[in-house]
Amino acid sequence: TGHTALDYGFVNTAATKSAITFIDGDEGILRYRGYPIEQLAKNSSYLEVAWLLIYGELPTGDQLGEFDEKIRRHTLIHEDLKHFFSALPHTAHPMSVLSSAVSALSTYYEGQSDPHNPEHVELNTIRMLAKLPVLAAYAHKKSIGQAFLYPDNSLSFVDNFLKLNFGVLSEEYVANPVMSRALERLLILHEDHEQNASTSTVRLVGSTGANQFSSISAGINALYGPLHGGANEAVLDMLGKIRDSGEGVKRFVERVKNKEDGVKLMGFGHRVYKNYDPRAKLVKESADEVLAELGVKDPLLDLAKELEEIALNDEYFQSRRLYPNVDFYTGVIYKAMGFPTRMFTVLFAIGRLPGWLAHWNELNTDPQTKIGRPQQLYTGAPERNYPGM
Ligand code: CMC
């Protein structure tokens, strides 16, 4: 059609209005429902921010208490679903395991997943928030060959998650409060980021009338890619390779600049942030603090700092306005907490879940919503005849 504008990567096209998250990429501003990310990261909790994103306001103490209680009551995974994990190789990437497990989870709630039934939507919101961390921890346990633990509903959201990951049968596990707080803070920083690739995926799938489980499973797959959530894993791999190859940071940066083998500086650059990523600033502050408090000394953190320093002073990165993004320093912290590298993007998924749920809701309650159906500009062959016709 003559009026179709071509916009690779949706750089200039808004597909929706949204009242959830505000970003000013030039000023480095991020707000959830109007509240600055810095204030939420300092004072709030994962579940409080989840409520804020999903329902639009901060909850009262009673509302938050009830929400928390409901989520604790829904953490159990059907015993049959646990067998699902046995069918997968232990070498499977936990992100593939997680997205498949969320799809599989939906089969337990068929008949209770009508996007137009507010009771179903509410219940599945609770189910997703309660069960995703448990499925994530099982993906972790599976990959290291350890037994799954039952959720301990006397614990807070984050402590329960840490215990499911790091506890072992028949031994007491008490989460280190420094680690709990640091993880909670990181999860809050990831909770929403307006129309990023995975959220847009959730919205596109949701626009077809698909339920929350199907839409979010698709979102997890979109997040897995190294240019999106997979970057936190890719950063650690990159740092490890630089260290092991002995090539030195300067030489590595040269290779990035020359675009040798398409190598990029992972954890740098952002579609929207062109001066700095406010999340990266908060994560960097945490990194030193957390490593010091956990008593971990990681040469990869020093390497990351050296890399950042060199890149920030280099004309290539300056002229393209490339700065560290949220993924640059998170991996170093997750590693210090004891998570294997392949779990990093899974942690991002748990963080992003409330945003996905909020966007799915916003889409489904907006009377202007239409099925998402982009245009194309056709560049193929003109009409031609099948041989013999
Ligand atoms: N290293 C080296 N060069 C880069 C990088 C990088 N990380 N990012 C962008 N560039 C270059 C790019 O090659 C291009 O150069 P030129 O003009 O010479 O062709 C220029 O900068 C503009 O980049 P772009 O690819 O047009 O930018 P985009 O908005 O399409 O991509 C991005 C944004 C995040 C995908 C990209 O910066 C990137 O691949 N970064 C590395 C992966 C990463 O860290 N992703 C996490 C993003 S933040 C959290 C999340 O979403 O999960």
Structural overview:
Keywords: Acyltransferase, Transferase, Tricarboxylic acid cycle. One of its GO terms (molecular function) is citrate synthase activity. It catalyses: oxaloacetate + acetyl-CoA + H2O = citrate + CoA + H(+). Belongs to the citrate synthase family. InterPro entries: Citrate_synth-like_lrg_a-sub (IPR016142), Citrate_synth-like_sm_a-sub (IPR016143), Citrate_synthase (IPR002020), Citrate_synthase_AS (IPR019810), Citrate_synthase_bac-typ (IPR024176), Citrate_synthase_sf (IPR036969), Citrate_synthase_typ-I (IPR010953). With 389 residues, the protein is mainly α. It has one domain: Citrate Synthase, domain 1, CATH 1.10.580. The protein contains 17 helices and three strands. A three-stranded antiparallel sheet has the order 1-2-3. β1 and β2 form a beta hairpin. 43% of the residues are buried. The mean pLDDT is 95. Carboxymethyl coenzyme *A (CMC) binds next to loops.
How are the SSEs ordered, and which strands pair?
Layout: E1 21-24, E2 29-32, E3 35-36, H1 37-43, H2 46-55, H3 61-73, H4 79-86, H5 94-106, H6 118-144, H7 157-166, H8 177-190, H9 197-206, H10 212-224, H11 231-245, H12 249-257, H13 278-294, H14 299-312, H15 315-319, H16 327-337, H17 344-365
Antiparallel strand pairs: 1-2, 2-3
Helix pairs in contact: 1-8, 2-17, 3-6, 5-6, 5-10, 6-7, 6-17, 8-13, 8-17, 9-10, 9-17, 10-17, 11-16, 13-16
The structure holds carboxymethyl coenzyme *A.
The neighbouring-strand order within the major sheet is 1-2-3
What radius of gyration results from the CA coordinates?
22 Å
CATH topology: Citrate Synthase, domain 1
The CATH homologous superfamily: Citrate Synthase, domain 1
Total DSSP E strands: 3
- Percent strand: under 5%
Q: What spatial form do the alpha-carbon principal axes imply?
A: globular
Integer tally of domains: 1
Structural class: mainly alpha
Pathway: Carbohydrate metabolism; tricarboxylic acid cycle; isocitrate from oxaloacetate: step 1/2
GO molecular function: citrate synthase activity
Keywords: Acyltransferase, Transferase, Tricarboxylic acid cycle
Family: Belongs to the citrate synthase family.
